[in-house]
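wait is this the right file?? whatever heres the structure
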């Protein structure tokens, strides 16, 4: 009975909310653990019996297990969404998740690459088809701030080089249009008209980026590409795909872009998510001041 309601919720997320498979998997991971907790207690045959204190006991157990504040906050969000669904579908008549206190989280600024590191990463000199593909992927990611899933899901028809933009379907199936810079356009033209044709075996694969077998490139495949490229280009720090997205946003704001435009290009539903990048630019500005202003307080060893 507990599992039936969960399955209905996941169906609701997929069909009615249109959430991505990655997001649904995250919900499933949290709520399977939530359900297991109550099944192990053998005290509940349905969700109607769950009370506020039962949830707080579950969250307390997570804390005792050493779960981070971020993990517990995410779990609370999943639990709230699930109980709201149960009321919506009249499976229960009360919401025990009301008034749950979300733990305060340490706000970690995302890692970004500076302009020199970006130039180094993108300075791929090889002219083999895979070299051209790799350069095209990284140029496009830095030019647009796409998520990895969005990048590998692109179709050839989504790229409009003559008009200088790419069409992207983001979270929840929301469409956004992102401009392309000249370096990205130039390498994409070479990739599409030359390199990609030598990689694909037939015309049935419509994905923009393909692997050496001519099939659609996977998320894992892109992760391998960026890690290997970073090593080959002599970058010491570990590079992740999301660092290119963070760098895209940070560099735009540093050079005068307004927050709303960056929010739209990133596909953030809430502008507060985008505002994290303003903290990065302020931190970098303070570092630059301390380093170069003659009246700045100099740190001594």
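ok assuming it is, sequence goes like this
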């Amino acid at each position: 009975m507990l599992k039936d309601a969960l399955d209905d919720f996941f169906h609701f997320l997929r069909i009615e909310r249109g959430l991505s498979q990655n997001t649904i998997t995250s919900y499933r991971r949290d709520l399977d653990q939530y359900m297991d907790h109550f099944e192990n207690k053998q005290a509940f045959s349905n969700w109607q019996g769950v009370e506020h204190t039962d949830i707080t006991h579950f969250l307390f157990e997570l804390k005792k297990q050493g779960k981070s504040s971020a993990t517990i906050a995410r779990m609370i969000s999943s639990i709230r969404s699930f109980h709201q669904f149960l009321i919506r579908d009249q499976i229960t008549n009360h919401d025990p998740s009301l008034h749950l206190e979300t733990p305060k989280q340490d706000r970690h600024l995302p890692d970004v690459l500076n302009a020199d590191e970006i130039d180094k990463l993108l300075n791929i000199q090889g002219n083999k088809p895979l070299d051209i593909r790799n350069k095209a992927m990284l140029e496009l990611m830095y030019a647009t701030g796409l998520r990895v899933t969005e990048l590998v899901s692109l179709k050839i028809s989504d790229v409009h080089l003559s008009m200088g933009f790419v069409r992207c379907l983001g979270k929840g199936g929301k469409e956004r249009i992102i401009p392309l810079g000249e370096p990205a356009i130039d390498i994409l033209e070479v990739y599409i008209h030359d390199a990609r044709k030598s990689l694909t075996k037939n015309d049935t694969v419509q994905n923009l980026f393909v692997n050496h077998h001519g099939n659609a490139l996977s998320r894992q495949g892109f992760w391998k590409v960026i890690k290997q490229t970073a090593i080959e280009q002599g970058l010491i720090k570990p590079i992740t795909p999301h660092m290119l997205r963070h760098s895209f946003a940070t560099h735009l704001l540093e050079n005068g872009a307004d927050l709303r435009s960056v929010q739209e290009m990133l596909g953030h539903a809430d502008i507060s998510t985008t505002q994290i990048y303003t903290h990065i630019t302020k931190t970098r500005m303070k570092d630059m001041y301390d380093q170069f202003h003659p009246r700045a307080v100099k740190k001594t060893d």
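The mean pLDDT is 86. so i think its the right one actually
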